[in-house]
């Protein structure tokens, strides 16, 4: 189907408070778009407006040339005529119907003939790998299987857009991992456009083709997952995307301790404007002998936290606590003094906007999916 476009979309529930503010967003045909952000940021409201369950207070929502919502034009297309399927956080399966009956339910409402209903339901259940349980009832299935049935119910009606509102939040860690892989496979096989709401940045990074980060009703950045990770548009995105989160140190005015050390280092590099803050991701902070061109300082080891495949080390660097993430065993104990160093830093101005490195064409305020893939302060530059 054509792209979904939102232009100047806003939603207010009265009293002057806006859940969504002047949102401009395009979901390309066939994309797997994740709306990512903390609770209350407006992502679910945005999804519900696309579905037609909420009407915008201002702006326009369109699919290609077909306008679905226009406040100025007084136009509103009801949900059942939008050709979209919505999967809620709650599975909402009928307990008295079999799995096949649940998947056929939407087709029955559309007056699809019985033979075609059966064929499409069985095909959808095969796609989500629950066809062996089609004659059982929801109470006989695990949570992960029930979630797959809810997806199959939507896939059976062949929607042009699949809207998912935090559908994995009720699953345990193992089932969430399994369902992430299933959703990626379903997207690749069906070619459907998917808009997925989540507050889990790991889900967004692992599944999406595009991520739209929202905060306080506003779009912060729209980019491909790894572009967003490598070049966050501002401090909010930098701290929200990544686990453990990026450490950000304010470096002015009159910095002392770690802030002064980082500022001296960045001043020796070419940047467009003096930074107001410097960010370091834990996985970019190394321990041991540094290269000659890297920033480095002595660090006191406060804790070593093994997690099987990785080790998180809490450090006291001058006057500031930092975390280092290592994927090789850390031979250190609390009280040891080591050298920590990094060749990768992220710089932000006084407004919290990313400062691109010299020669980068990335736009820190918008979609950074184009341009240089390297937009960090490189110590060796």
From TrEMBL:
Coiled coil: none annotated. It holds the Pfam family ABC_tran. The keyword Glycosyltransferase does not apply. Gene3D superfamilies: 2.40.50.100, P-loop containing nucleotide triphosphate hydrolases. This is Iron(III) transport system ATP-binding protein. One of its GO terms (cellular component) is ATP-binding cassette (ABC) transporter complex, substrate-binding subunit-containing. Keywords: ATP-binding, Nucleotide-binding, Transport. It comes from the Bacteria. Residues 4-241 form the ABC transporter domain. InterPro entries: AAA+_ATPase (IPR003593), ABC_transporter-like_ATP-bd (IPR003439), ABC_transporter-like_CS (IPR017871), ABC_transpr_MalK/UgpC-like (IPR047641), Mo/tungstate-bd_C_term_dom (IPR008995), P-loop_NTPase (IPR027417). Residues 353-381 are annotated as: Disordered. Residues 356-371 have a biased composition (Low complexity). GO terms for molecular function: ABC-type transporter activity; ATP binding; ATP hydrolysis activity. It comes from Streptosporangium sandarakinum.
């Amino acid at each position: 189907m054509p792209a979904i476009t939102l232009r100047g979309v806003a939603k207010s529930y009265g009293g002057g408070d806006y859940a969504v503010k002047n949102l401009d967003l395009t979901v390309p045909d066939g994309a797997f778009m994740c709306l990512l952000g903390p609770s209350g940021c407006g992502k679910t409201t945005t999804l519900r407006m696309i579905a037609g369950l909420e009407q915008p207070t201002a702006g326009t929502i369109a699919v290609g040339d077909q306008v679905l919502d226009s406040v100025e034009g007084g136009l509103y297309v009801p949900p059942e005529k939008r050709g979209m399927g919505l999967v809620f956080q709650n599975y909402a399966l009928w307990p008295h119907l079999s799995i096949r009956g649940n998947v056929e339910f939407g087709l029955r409402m559309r007056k699809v003939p019985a033979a075609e209903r059966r064929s499409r339901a069985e095909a959808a259940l095969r796609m989500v790998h629950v066809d062996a349980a089609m004659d059982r009832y929801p109470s006989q299935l695990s949570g992960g299987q029930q979630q797959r049935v809810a997806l199959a119910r939507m896939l059976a009606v062949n929607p042009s857009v699949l809207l998912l509102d935090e559908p994995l939040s009720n699953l345990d860690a193992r089932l969430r991992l399994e369902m992430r892989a299933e959703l990626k496979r379903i997207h690749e096989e069906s070619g459907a456009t998917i808009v997925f709401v989540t507050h889990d940045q790991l889900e967004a990074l692992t599944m999406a083709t595009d991520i739209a980060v929202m905060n306080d009703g506003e779009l912060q950045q729209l980019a491909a997952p790894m572009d967003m990770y490598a070049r966050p548009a501002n401090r909010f995105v930098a701290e929200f995307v990544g686990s453990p989160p990026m450490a950000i140190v304010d470096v002015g005015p009159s910095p002392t301790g770690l802030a002064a050390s980082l500022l001296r280092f960045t001043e020796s590099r070419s940047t467009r404007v003096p930074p107001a803050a410097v960010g370091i991701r834990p996985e970019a902070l190394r321990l041991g002998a540094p290269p000659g061109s890297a920033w480095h300082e002595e660090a006191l080891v406060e804790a070593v936290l093994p997690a099987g495949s990785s080790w998180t080390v809490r450090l006291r660097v001058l006057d500031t606590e930092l975390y280092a993430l290592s994927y090789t065993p850390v031979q250190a104990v609390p009280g040891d003094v080591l050298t920590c160093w990094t060749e990768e830093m992220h710089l932000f101005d006084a407004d919290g906007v990313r400062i691109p490195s010299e020669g980068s064409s990335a736009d820190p305020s918008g979609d950074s999916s184009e341009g240089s893939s390297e937009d960090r302060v490189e110590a060796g530059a």
